[in-house]
């Protein structure tokens, strides 16, 4: 069958067989030379069989001819590093959001769902991704759990990863966050790296501010990329040492402006733009790779270099030889753009088929069905379980700052009421509780936080990096407990409680991380949550993002997990009172 199809493809390329599609009169970005040339693109089945001058295309017949005169044609854009779970929708729905933006291939790290469900979660992502025309590859999470300082829902050893590494949708090993483990030769971690290397697949890095000999040792393990650079000199060293530099411009971490001056015509092949984390509102209103290109060009980058950075550069790094370039035998993943300044997408072709236009995706949305009841294994024994006995003297309080996931530790006397420590809205000291939700241990980490500004009620979420236990911040214990209980009933979500009732909620029934709703509906509910958060006095613009990073025990300084307050610098659980 392959030989028959190949013969037919060759015949179509010769003009001896009718084409399925001809894109006529457009300006084609030549990814190899960087030139923009007026060409016609010839397509048979899912392949490009020619990129020719208009005079030459007259010798071909086609079942369909689309006039793209005055427009620009590029290969489909490639997203090299994203956690789809951050969009709060499933992979198939994520595709419906970003395909109309020109993204035809995605490299996703399912780190979040893996922390909740292990290999079952990874397999769910792969199965759901197969419902969409977009190519979604997955890198296997390398650090599940991230630390032992919180209770996760799963543990992925090299043995579990070995069962998946040869799957065609697995593209490599996900970001290796355990930098100390690498340079100290931790055997289990090195087994995971070896597994990917022997399979001929990429090993992605995660090395914020790592430099000098430490970076050299990290790279010596075979790690190839990094998306955590935030400073010019940091990115420069990583490029010089041979790393594939993924310049991040996500919803929360934005590094493009600081790192773009590094890029020139000599090194652009070793860099790309990535989202890492992207929320629904940004996908809908800002865009995806198309936005990164627009911003880079507005800052002075040559548009043909920008395009090559999100096409051939990542295709070469990941060994995806059939995409990233418009040439005979390559997949017909083609973007039709209004211009190379705004990067407004007019049409998207995937494997030779029109899948999106200016109005959005042009393929059916499959019904979503998935039972995730097992991800809410929470022991709820009553509001008394979150009472905190008051003690004389100062307590450790987590201090947050807007748009920062790094926290500080401050020491304050807590407000007392009937022998218990309670929230103090006058000083903006609020109770925070983390409920373990994977194993029914009954673990509840309790503490206090400064900076949220709530005057009443509570907010809660089942998204809490990296193990995604349930976290709630609030004024009254009853409201905190109600918010957590409602999340359990929803099988996951984000909830706001005011005056003893739930006033707004977003259900995240897929592992407590994602919704089965369409992207636009999820965005509407997020906006309603944000509106209601203001109504309970919240002083920050992104309360749920801030909430989700409070349990992350690898980012300084004082955090809270289901096991209690955690001093990241000392790397140990610490008591509430000094």
UniProtKB/TrEMBL annotation:
A GO term for molecular function: adenine deaminase activity
> SUPFAM superfamilies per the record?
Composite domain of metallo-dependent hydrolases, Metallo-dependent hydrolases
**Location of the Amidohydrolase-related domain:** 72-355
The reaction(s) annotated as catalysed by this protein in its Swiss-Prot or TrEMBL entry are: adenine + H2O + H(+) = hypoxanthine + NH4(+)
Per the UniProt entry, the signal peptide is none
Highest rank taxon of the organism: Bacteria
List UniProt keywords, sorted A-Z: Hydrolase, Manganese
Enzyme Commission code: 3.5.4.2
Q: Where is the Adenine deaminase C-terminal domain?
A: 404-572
Name listed for the protein in its UniProt record: Adenine deaminase
């Amino acid at each position: 069958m392959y030989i028959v199809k190949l013969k037919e493809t060759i015949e179509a390329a010769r003009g001896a067989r009718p084409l399925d599609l001809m894109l006529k009169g457009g300006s084609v970005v030549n990814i190899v030379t960087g030139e923009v040339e007026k060409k016609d693109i010839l397509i048979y089945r899912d392949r490009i069989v020619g990129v020719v001058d208009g005079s030459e295309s007259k010798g071909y017949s086609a079942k369909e001819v689309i006039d793209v005169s005055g427009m620009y044609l590029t290969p489909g854009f490639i997203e090299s590093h994203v956690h789809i779970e951050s969009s709060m929708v499933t992979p198939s729905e994520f595709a419906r959001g970003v395909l109309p933006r020109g993204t035809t291939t995605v490299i996703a790290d399912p780190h979040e769902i893996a922390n909740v469900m292990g290999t079952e979660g990874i397999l769910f992502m792969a199965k759901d991704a197969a419902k969409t025309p977009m190519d979604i590859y997955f890198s296997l999470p390398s650090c599940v759990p991230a630390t032992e300082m919180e209770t996760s829902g799963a543990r992925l050893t090299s043995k579990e990863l070995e069962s998946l590494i040869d799957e065609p949708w697995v593209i490599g090993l996900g970001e290796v966050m355990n930098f100390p483990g690498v340079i100290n030769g931790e055997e289990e971690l090195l087994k995971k790296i070896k597994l990917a290397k022997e399979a001929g697949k990429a090993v992605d890095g995660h090395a914020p501010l790592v430099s000098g000999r430490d970076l050299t040792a990290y790279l010596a393990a075979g790690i190839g990329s990094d998306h955590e650079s935030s400073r010019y000199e940091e990115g420069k060293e990583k490029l010089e040492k041979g790393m594939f530099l993924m310049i991040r411009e996500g919803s929360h971490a934005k590094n493009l402006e600081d790192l773009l001056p590094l890029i020139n015509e000599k090194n652009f092949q070793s860099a790309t733009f990535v989202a890492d984390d992207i929320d629904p509102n940004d996908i809908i209103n800002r865009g995806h790779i198309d936005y990164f290109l627009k911003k880079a060009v507005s800052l002075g980058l040559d548009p043909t270099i920008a395009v090559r950075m999100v096409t051939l550069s990542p295709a070469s790094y990941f060994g995806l030889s059939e995409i990233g370039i418009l040439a005979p035998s390559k997949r017909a993943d083609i973007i039709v753009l209004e211009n190379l300044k705004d990067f407004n997408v007019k049409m998207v072709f995937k494997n030779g088929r029109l899948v999106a236009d200016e109005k959005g995706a042009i393929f059916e949305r499959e019904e979503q069905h998935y039972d995730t009841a097992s991800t809410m294994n929470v022991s709820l024994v009553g509001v008394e379980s979150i009472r905190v006995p008051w003690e004389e003297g100062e307590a450790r309080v987590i201090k947050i700052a807007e748009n920062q996931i790094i926290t500080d530790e401050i020491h304050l006397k807590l407000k007392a009421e009937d022998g218990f420590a309670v929230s103090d809205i006058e000083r903006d000291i609020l109770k925070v509780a983390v409920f373990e939700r994977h194993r029914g241990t009954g673990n509840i980490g309790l503490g206090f936080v400064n900076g949220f500004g709530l005057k009443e009620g509570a907010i809660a979420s089942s998204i809490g990096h990296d193990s995604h236990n349930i976290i709630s911040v609030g004024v009254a214990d009853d409201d905190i407990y109600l918010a957590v209980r409602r999340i359990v009933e929803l099988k996951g979500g984000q909830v706001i409680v005011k005056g003893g009732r739930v006033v707004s909620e977003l259900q995240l029934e897929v592992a407590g991380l994602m919704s089965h709703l369409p992207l636009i509906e999820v965005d509407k509910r997020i906006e309603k949550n944000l509106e209601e958060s203001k109504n309970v006095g919240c002083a920050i613009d992104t309360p749920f993002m801030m909430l989700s990073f409070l349990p992350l025990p690898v980012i300084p300084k004082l955090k809270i997990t289901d096991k209690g307050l955690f001093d990241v610098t000392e790397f140990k659980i610490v008591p509430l009172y000094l």
